[in-house]
Amino acid sequence: MSGGPAAAGCPACGAPLAPWPGAGEPAPGFDPFFQVAPGGRVFRHRECAACGLLATAPTPTDAELAEVYGGRYDFAWFQRRRALKRLQARHRWWRLRRWRGSSAAPGAATPRLLDIGAGQGDFVRCARRAGWDAVGLDPAAPGEADDAVRRGGVEALAALSGPFQLITFWHCLEHLPAPRAALADAARLLAPGGRLISPSSTRGKR
Q1: What are phi and psi of 17, to 5 degrees?
Q2: Are the beta carbons of 58 and 5 closer than 8 angstroms?
């Protein structure tokens, strides 16, 4: 996933971006801007006026992302929170029950799931336990990870073979510099009638 200059508008739909959390005073204890390093570029949260996506402006570069995430939001971070992440994965699988029920009907071919930004793969394993052929992608996956999660970001979608009945981006799109392109690449892997689920950080949880 490559960073770059600030986008003219929302990276998802192209509509104008507005200050967040609004024109008023920030919420108590909330810092509306941050810097990767002293004297470095200033980043602020912006909200799309149309789709509600929260985005970082300007878009961080790969080097800036590495400075923020390196050694912190990695597999060691997930490991320290393993019990919580397993519980979260089960809850997410339960939330998708109305969309996944018909895909796993008795007598149907084994349904397939792709989870993008899969972390340590707890959601993927929930799907596997339910009889799905599931796999995840995560750019921070270590080389010794099991086959539940493959190392790679959205750029790895081109090398995957579909179709998938369900593709998920759990709170992932807001971290991508080109979410529309990622959605288009993922959509090409969907089976007819398949679902692409993409919860993201929005103020209204849209």
Answers
A1: -100, 140
A2: yes
pTM, rounded to two decimals: 0.69
pLDDT digits (tens, 9 = 90+) for 63-77: 776 666 655 555 566
- Please state, in angstroms and rounded to a whole number, the distance separating the CA atoms of residues 116 and 200: 13
Are the beta carbons of 1 and 155 closer than 8 angstroms?
yes
Q: CA angle at residue 149 from 197 to 68, to 5 degrees?
A: 80
The DSSP annotation for 122-155 comes to: HHHHHHHHTT-EEEEEETT--TT--TTEEE--GG
C-alpha–C-alpha distance, residues 111 and 159, integer Å: 20
Q: Alpha helices, DSSP H only, in the chain?
A: 62-69, 75-80, 82-95, 97-100, 122-129, 179-187
CB atoms within 10 A of CB 141: 21
What is the Cα Rg of the chain in Å? Answer: 18
Q: What is the pLDDT of residues 146-184, one digit of tens each?
A: 688 888 888 888 888 889 999 999 888 777 778 888 889
In this structure, what token pair is assigned to residue 162?
Answer: 């579909």
